[in-house]
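One chain is below:
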Amino acid sequence: MKKIVCLLVSGMLLASALVGCTGNQTETPTAAPTETAEPSQTPFVYEGTTFRVGALMGPTGMGMSKLMKDAQDKKTVNDYGFELFSAPTDVTGLLINGELDLAAVPTNLAATLYNKTKGKIRLLALNTLGVLYVMEKGDTVHSIADLEGKKLYSSGQAATPEYALNYVLKQNNVTCEVEYFSTHAELATQALAGNADLILIPEPQVSNILTKDPAWRIAIDFNDAWDEACDHTALFSMGCLVVNADFASAHPDALQGFLLDYAASVQYVNENPADAAALIAEYGIVPSAGIAEKAIPNAKMVCITGAEMAEKTKTYLQILFDSDPKSIGGAIPADDFYYEK
């Protein structure tokens, strides 16, 4: 089910907008990375292009909230029409058919779409690092090793959570029983109802659970578990932005304008959690501002593009491929998968 947020407005880029879209990672894995870029000296001057953008509820959509507001206030280079979706599968058909120009999707799905469409989808930016957490209502789990012999409840079967969990468990020689629920929301509901006491779940459901029942705690930041499993060789690059290849070829300057707008949006959300949370709730990306504000520090929103994006993504996809080829559509994408203009 999707919620449509129609924001078709136009305007010129603010002189203070950011040039480029780079992710400066902090040394502390649990801290949300802050985006920095040089101020624009010569704003783009061209007639605005209309973008049809697909966003997801949760962290990948949270980073777009300020961009939605800027579009309403006519502070963007381009015209943006946003569609908000509850699941990545709701996006794929529209993206493949050209009904969306840009979309936020899991990074492994981006590779799958590239393979499925024979190169018609390009990776534009990494926008979300690991947002998965092992949570426990108790105090017995403090590391992946502590999962040995236990039963873990999760969501995201045949998606990033399952592939990442399998990889981390294998690297640690840990065996545990895993039962999957169909959605993150269902998993949270079952956990709060007392039907699961050890779970793997993403933000903002983590903050939702902690808000409603303080007896729960974060037992493992899965970002840390991933880093240790791969010996710190690859970012846990869960979420990204993709672009239709034909659209990218036809509108290269407008696409750079989008990256300026998006970089500014991500930076604003990370640096202004209270104000950003109000926007996130207003646009229905997360149900409440209170939960959104608590989730922002753990949502690990970034904006990484160009050669840095390609380097970090290649390593991540190689790990997923080696673990399970079907996780990225059966093949490592060619270099033209990466949009590096």
The domain at 132-229 is CATH 3.40.190.10 (D-Maltodextrin-Binding Protein; domain 2). The radius of gyration is 19 Å. Confidence is low (pLDDT under 50) at residues 1-46.
